[in-house]
């Protein structure tokens, strides 16, 4: 490493101290780091009511999301409650065990026989849902809620 490289690195270190990244950026980075060992089939986001104006009946702040993988579909309704989120959803076919993953930890989800679930008090920010199946587990893409 040259002296100019050392000077540049010192300036970059100081910039990180003087202007740290926002907490949301750190949460997203942690969530991305967790994905480094993807051991599940990925369910991708195929529909988001935020992208289709006027398509949601009910409160304007409620968001509807649909994730799809080869083996299952997840319908998710998200209602903001301050800095928390209330989730109501259904996975078809029902596939347990299930969980909600956030940068702060993992919460189990209870599925009924139809694959319906509710999770209250989920922190706003990056969230991923995981479902067990007879074969390979399935996880939704990390999504900002």
Task: Tell me about this structure.
With 145 residues, the chain is an alpha+beta fold. Helices cover 19% and strands 42% of the residues. It contains two helices and ten strands; from the N terminus they run H-H-E-E-E-E-E-E-E-E-E-E. A hairpin with a 6-residue loop joins strand 8 and strand 9. It starts with a helix and ends with a strand.
Helix and strand topology:
Blueprint: H1 3-18, H2 23-34, E1 41-48, E2 63-68, E3 73-81, E4 84-92, E5 98-102, E6 105-109, E7 116-123, E8 126-131, E9 138-140, E10 143-144
Parallel strand pairs: 1-9
Antiparallel strand pairs: 1-2, 2-3, 3-4, 4-7, 5-6, 5-8, 8-9, 8-10
Given as residue ranges, the uncertain stretches (5+ residues, pLDDT < 50) are none
Query: Outline, from the CA principal axes?
Result: elongated
How many structural units, i.e. domains? 1
Distance between the termini: 43 Å
Q: Please tally the β strands and state the result.
A: 10
Order of helices and strands: HHEEEEEEEEEE
Instruction: Estimate the helix proportion, in percent.
Output: 10-25%
Would you tell me the overall average pLDDT? 85
- Rg over CA atoms: 19 Å
Number of helices: 2
Taking the sheet with the most strands, its summary is: 10 strands, mixed
Strand content: 35-45%
Structural class: alpha+beta
Brief sketch in words of this structure:
Helix content is 19%, strand content 42%.
What labels describe this entry?
single chain, 145 residues, 42% strand
